[in-house]
Structure formats: structure tokens, C-alpha cells
Specification:
Blueprint (H helix, E strand, L loop, with lengths): L1 H32 L7 H15 L34
């Protein structure tokens, strides 16, 4: 019975530590992934707007053409039939 309580206690301690450490580890990981965001909210918003402005060129249109793809029809596909309905009098 003592072993059971020890296991339960260890599980509770594990999840308690996980709850305390996981938010900090996650915040560190997110800061590292986005390039070391400053702690102040106003500074971060200013930096974000500046990056958006640098990436966006107003009035410039970009057209991308893609190569036409060849239609793939296998032997088990049916044939497409275009039909029109006729009204009979």
C-alpha cells in the first residue's frame, strides 16, 4: 500500500511541476522562434508594424503564372457527356 501512495504522490508532483514549468518553457520557445520579441507590448507592436510595412509595397501587383497541368484520366473513369434538356410539346 505504501508503494501505491508513493506512486500517486510522484504522479501528483510530476503534474504540479509540469504545470509550473511548461508555461515558462513554452514562452521561452515562442520568444526564440519569433526572433527575441521585446518584453514591452508597445515596442513589439511597433516592430511588428514596421516589418509589415517593409514587406508590403503598396500599388505593386504581382502576377504568378502556373504551368497548365495535364489532365489525368485513368481507365476506370467514366466519360464526361455534356447534354441539354429539350422540352417536348
Amino acid at each position: 500500500m505504501e508503494a501505491f501512495f508513493t506512486v500517486v504522490l510522484l504522479i501528483v508532483l510530476f503534474f504540479w511541476l509540469l504545470g509550473k514549468l511548461l508555461p515558462r518553457v513554452l514562452a521561452w520557445y515562442v520568444r526564440r522562434r519569433i526572433g527575441g520579441a521585446p518584453q514591452g507590448g508597445a515596442e513589439w507592436q511597433q516592430r511588428w508594424r514596421q516589418q509589415e510595412h517593409e514587406n508590403k509595397n503598396e500599388g505593386e501587383v504581382e502576377i504568378k503564372y502556373s504551368e497548365p497541368q495535364e489532365k489525368i484520366i485513368t481507365g476506370n473513369m467514366g466519360e464526361y457527356v455534356d447534354f441539354e434538356e429539350e422540352k417536348s410539346n
